[in-house]
Amino acid sequence: MIATGKGTSGKPRLQISAGTIHKMSALLTLLILILIFSFGNKAFLSVNNGLTVLLQTSVIGLMGIGMTLVIITGGIDLSVGSVLALSGTTTGLLVKAGVPVVPAMLCGVLVGAACGLFNGFVITKMRITPFVATLGMMLIARGTALQLTGAAPISRLGEAFGILGNGSFFRVVEMQANGFPKVVFPGIPYPVVLLAIVAVAAAYLLRRRAIGRHIYAVGSNEEAAHLAGVNVDRTKMVAYTMSGALAGLGGNVLMSRLVTAQPNEGVMYELDAIASAVIGGASLMGGVGTISGTMIGAFIIGVLRNGLNMAGVSAFIQQIVIGFVVILAVYVDQMRNRR
Amino acid sequence: MLDQTLSDGPLVEMINIEKHFGGVCAVDDVSVDLYPGEVVGVLGHNGAGKSCLMRILSGAMMPNAGKIRVRGQEADIHSPSDARDYGIETIYQTLALADHLDAPANLFLGRELKTAFGNLDDKKMLSEAQEVLARLNPNFKNLGDPVSSLSGGQRQAIAIARALYFDARVLIMDEPTAALGPSETAMVADLTLKLRDEGIGIFLVSHDMNDVFDLCDRIMVMSRGVNVGMHPIRDVTKDDVLSLIIKGALPDDWEPRQR
């Protein structure tokens, strides 16, 4: 939140805002989870596994950032999972058609942004509620992705397509005497670096730029923002467009990691994105939410998935656990607001 | 002071303003003017169209017909920011604050101060807000808190500070004291007169007859969307005004109070 408890009267004040408390409790939850899983399985707390969690979380994290922007305006974006698939398959089709990888990926992200812009248009100009508008886009984008590909995955996209998802910085490999390579340090995966850059950029946008201030204001009191001269429609369109573009970016990262463009990838991802924003303290009523909170939320989900996997818990049980975590997080949020 | 400023020509003229909602005529062919350094009270029942008229001037609503002149020039007001460009500031009944933001963020909402790189200049906004709010309420210290945690008087101070800081020439006050306690009401009254003496023209929408007679130079009464009377305050009594509000006309045997 913007109004975190900074002392304004000169002397530092000890008062900590409710948002900070929520974020601290989320962070504590994350640390406790890591602690529990570390005791359960020695392999959990290793550099390798840490990087795996980071990699697995990056797509959800990217979508969660876009979702946070939308949720702060008081809206919701249910289309991100489908937009992710449409963006990824667009890139895949373009690469297959002979377009070089970088421009193809840019096009893919642009398609995502266009879907987001369309959402924003429907919501602001046609005055359709965000839930319904993005539900429509969820079907439109998924249908388009399936239609374009004939519902078949596009494979053999070449090595260059896989770099974004599989490459890494500072990877250290040394050749052993027996002729096999040994990975000394697996490197920091590109998607993780990308997530860090996007997160910092989004946090900067929300805290230091006028558009960020307007995003909070629109979610806090749309009428007041309008009367104060804020262009409410434009603000919402920016939020939805960024959500679409980040879903597109996430789609490209994911498809690149698989080196296959899958039109039916990303089903129910929107719920993970919403869950990470909400666990991170964003309020579906609007006006509240931070990027750092969402990142913590995304990692809580990522660590839970990874830890439960390593403990041999079935995917079904994992869903149950994450469901309870979401309910618990919102409950904690409501308790803090009721005070 | 009223007579001397009359010669300068009106600050604002609203001419033959009309506004319909479906078949309902909320504002029907209403004309009103406002001179520098005067307070014009806008009175009427709930739903008489006075808030609607004021929202048209503040750019929150578009009229179906009629025109607005500001200092003799025809003004094109399509949005609240257009109105602000003409120096028209509004203090809304609801105060129109974003609850999750702090006082400086609300004060500068839509007109944020920025650094050379286009970043928000929170430091400058905080110090400027401190300065202008201190003029209104010296006890206003908790500027970093979200405004949802502030008292009614403090919230009102932010709304008024917004008008003060940006050098309003025309101020619309829509029931500014509706949510305030007695001492805060007195503060707003003092401030209204101070602003008037600085040459600002003020439209005061109010239900409080005492406020109206203490502060206003002229009154305008609306009934069912029609302007039923515009009188200098010295010509009318409270009973006359009540008659205008309730009956839509002056008492049958009415004649100006002092003449």
What tags apply to this protein structure?
heterodimer; A: mainly alpha; ABC transporter involved in vitamin B12 uptake, BtuC; two-stranded antiparallel sheet; two-stranded antiparallel ribbon; 13 helices; disordered N terminus; B: 259 residues; 9 helices; 33% helix; globular
The description of the largest β-sheet of chain B is:
6 strands, mixed
How many alpha or pi helices of chain B?
Answer: 9
Annotated CATH homologous superfamily of chain B: P-loop containing nucleotide triphosphate hydrolases
The helix/strand order of chain A is HHHHHHEEEEHHHHHHH
3D structure, described in words:
- The complex is a heterodimer of chains A (339) and B (259).
- By secondary structure, chain A is mostly helical.
- Chain A has one domain (23-36, 43-338): ABC transporter involved in vitamin B12 uptake, BtuC, CATH 1.10.3470.
- Chain A has helices at residues 18-40, 47-72, 80-96, 101-124, 130-149, 159-166, 190-208, 210-220, 222-227, 232-258, 269-279, 291-310, 315-338; strands at residues 168-169, 172-175, 181-185, 188-189.
- In chain A, β2 (172-175) and β3 form a beta hairpin.
- In chain A, α2 crosses α12 and α4 (101-124) packs antiparallel against α10.
- Chain A is globular and about 75 Å long.
- The model of chain A is unreliable at 1-14 (pLDDT under 50).
- The model of chain B is unreliable at 1-6 (pLDDT under 50).
- In chain B, α5 packs across α6 (152-165).
- In chain B, the strands form 2 sheets. Chain B has a 6-stranded mixed sheet, sandwiched between helices. A 4-stranded antiparallel sheet of chain B has the order 2-1-4-5, with helices on one face.
- The longest helix of chain B has 16 residues, at 182-197.
- Chain B has 259 residues and is an alpha/beta fold.
- The interface between A and B is medium-sized, with 32 and 36 residues.
